Amino acid sequence: MEKEIAILMADLTGYTAMTDVHGGASAAKIVGKYMEIVDTALHGTAKVMQRIGDQVVMIAENAVDLLQTARKLNTLTREEQHFLSIHAGLHYGEIVIENNNLFGSTINVAARIMNVACRGEIICSSNFFTQLPPESQQLFRSIGIRKLKNVMTQIELFELIPMLANEVYIDPVCHMHIDRTKPSQFADHSGVTYHFCGEHCKLLFLAAPEQFLAPSEDM
Predict the structure, then answer these.
(1) What's the pLDDT at 168?
(2) Which CATH number fits domain 2-160: 3.30.70.1230, 2.60.120.10, 3.90.400.10, 1.25.40.10?
(3) 124 forms bridges with which residues in the sheet?
(4) Which pTM does this prediction carry?
(5) Residue 146 and which of 25, 110, 134, 193 are 20 to 30 A apart at CA?
(6) What are phi and psi of 159, to 5 degrees?
(7) Which helix (H) or strand (E) holds 153?
């Protein structure tokens, strides 16, 4: 039976690079901590439906509960030292739930929206946006109408306006963020200072800086 729900898909940005650099044990530790943060972030009717590696799928009976969950999740991951930021997609529509599995185009669209988001971004569809009260809609800005991969109709997307927060450094090697107020490893390259989670990432960078400065957003 189909029902209309709000859906959130969130992934850790840079998880693949972090795993390559720090290994499986560190990856498992990061994911374990991430799942603890996810549980803490749940608001109202929001609940976790699936956990696949570093990706989580959450649903809620209304858009507001899932928006609050997404905002808290983004804040908590950002505040965690030597951690990874999320990127997330929000959508609203009909879905079939059988044995805790989700079926239908709604989840596919949510996944495509998540993939549009970059580090620290939360993006929603117009379907989700129109489910929000005016005071919540004011938290978003339109980023235009997009054609998403394998989605037949074009969709207007909205980005959650970033909240003012303490800036963090991003390790160019493993993509983990580092609190600016805390001591960290650093090195200069071509007049720019880069900060690192530790000596290992610093040495990898110094050995081949161009390898880590290519414009990419590892998901």
Answers:
(1) 82
(2) 3.30.70.1230
(3) 90, 158
(4) 0.89
(5) 134
(6) -100, 135
(7) none
